Amino acid sequence: MFCxxxxxxxxxxxxxxxxxxxxxxxxxxxxxxxxxxVVEDGKLAGIITSRDVRYCHPNxxxxxxxxxxxxxxxxxxxxxxxxxxMESHGIERLVxxxxxxxxxxxxxxxxxxxxxxxxxxxxxxxxxxxxxHKAAELLQSGQEITVIFLxxxxxxxxxxxxxxxxxxxxxxxxxxxxxxxTTEGLDYLxxxxxxxxxxxxxxxxxxxxxxxxxxxxxxxxxxxxxxxKVTASAGVAGGRRSRVRGEPNGTHNVRDLINxxxxxxxxxxxxxxxxxxxxxxxxEEVG
Length: 287
Description:
The protein contains eleven helices and eleven strands. By secondary structure, the protein is of the alpha+beta class. The radius of gyration is 24 Å and the shape is elongated.
């Protein structure tokens, strides 16, 4: 899992609560940064931003101008969790705290640049890492989840016969079609790898199965470059967080669930069946 601790600015410049607002402003100007964590006795006491100093006399104390309600995360916080926190609070930076002590700071620009590396440039969809993160997050929130793994049929032959440019056009169109079918807040789509796409959804197994059929049909019914016929095979597997460890049949993790759906799609392709359902598994406690 990709965590904030991997990319945060370590040992950030800080200021004390009893220093002046003018001193904070000078530091921010010199360092070309928009905010300073305020630390007292080694512990995070607040944060002061360029907006705070703009409306406060420079002789006032930092303690009078800073915000004491600091949105903080741990170094283990994932990129996507950090992004959601920044967006929900409308802030440009997060302080990173471990055992009550400031250990780093992560800015919006730095975070978005890293997240951009996990977005597929061809389709604009998230990559596989996002699927694993989202599946774990949904399980932690107590929701049952289902994974749909979708693999295009004979895509290698299409690439060889029509070339990679046409192949890329097809992958882009597949991404758009699948995105148009999925529902924000219910389904989380990614390009898993090559000609493989996957969705983690909070729909129950039967409803997710219907969604996979819709996807298969939409691809089969679409018009494709040069009259190419594009079909796909899908595997579906559902999971719920196990409440009891050491169950007779053992438990699985998120990676196992994704793998089950992947193997089901391979079986579907081998048996020339559009959709194969692997069923439910119990998943290990996460987090």
